Amino acid sequence: MAKDRRPAEDLTIAELEAVLARKKLEARQARIQQFRRSGRVLSLPGQNGTETSSSDDDLQAGWRRSQEEAEGNPKSTLNRIFNRSLLFVEIAAVVGFLYILLSGAGALQKLNTEVAQALSGQASPTPLITAVVLPSGHTPPNSPQGARFNEAEIPESLRPFVQTYNNIPIPTPGPEQARGLLIPAILNGEVPVVQGDGWEQLKKGIGQHIGSVDPGKNGNLVLSAHNDIYGEWFRDLDQLNPGDEIVIKTATQVYTYRVTRTRIVSPTDVSVLEPTNKSTITLISCYPYLVDKQRIVVFGELADG
């Protein structure tokens, strides 16, 4: 067999292993020959009358295995493919494990944030779409059972959601929240603004809808009040005209809005609560006076601040 004179760096791993095995075989055969000459190796008759030894057989078998691997033994090729498949499976398992760890860490961080908000009392704003009926609804004070929350306004299929909506946490008071409201055209003085527009909140003043924006911000600032009970603050909303001023006070600022239009809607027309792209204000009350089967809605836009 002609010697392979290629540089070592051009040989494959299998070819290098074959060369190494051949070198080892030649070295061992040289040692065995030396031992034979000294009488320390027992020679046995082999094929064709040649002498061989057990050490020769082992070395030749190893040489043949090395040669088969170098020449692409199918069995060796299958072993390599199997080993590479195992490596791929192990890498995929590690990647999957890392993905699970990262996903779990993200979920844990979100949970910790929600718990921290709950403990501090600073709940995230609730989407306005959670409302199923417009605020300030009640039966007239001259009805047989007097003024009370009018559950009949709510479609029966949506009534289970009302209890959840009424339990929305009240945000912690802040300096940018509305504190007072003044409408020169219909009110004699400033009226306090409270957070929330449930039955209990509207006993204390004008209620800001939870989830609506603070005064002066881009979005829809929604305020509600009764028209014939608890101060009758919004009794004369129907007398407002485009251009009339609505003044909102916070702890540090005063914002002036101007009326743009007025609508009469059904109690379930919650579209008037939706966010806006501009700084707007929406005033809501029952309508008509002492009937309270509809809602009057006054819309305005920020004039200056």
Strand order of the largest sheet: 3-4-5-6-9-10-8-7
Structural class: alpha+beta
Helix content: 25-40%
Q: Please name the fourth-level CATH homologous superfamily of the largest domain.
A: Sortase
CATH third-tier fold name of the largest domain: Sortase, Chain: A
Order of helices and strands: HEEHHHEEEEEEEE
Quick take:
Helices cover 32% and strands 19% of the residues.
What would your notes on this structure say?
- The protein folds into 2 domains: 8-72; 128-166 and 176-304, Sortase (Sortase, Chain: A).
- It has helices spanning 13-37, 54-70, 74-120, 159-166; strands at 44-45, 51-52, 180-182, 191-195, 206-208, 219-224, 245-249, 254-265, 279-287, 294-304.
- Helix 1 runs antiparallel to helix 2.
- The strands form 2 sheets. The protein has an 8-stranded mixed β-barrel with strand order 3-4-5-6-9-10-8-7. The protein has a two-stranded antiparallel ribbon with strand order 1-2.
- Helices cover 32% and strands 19% of the residues.
- Mean pLDDT is 81; it is low at 46-54 and 122-129.
- The chain contains 4 helices and 10 strands, in the order αββαααββββββββ.
- The protein starts with 12 loop residues before the first helix and ends with a strand.
- The radius of gyration is 44 Å and the shape is rod-shaped.
- With 305 residues, it is α+β, with helices and mostly antiparallel strands.
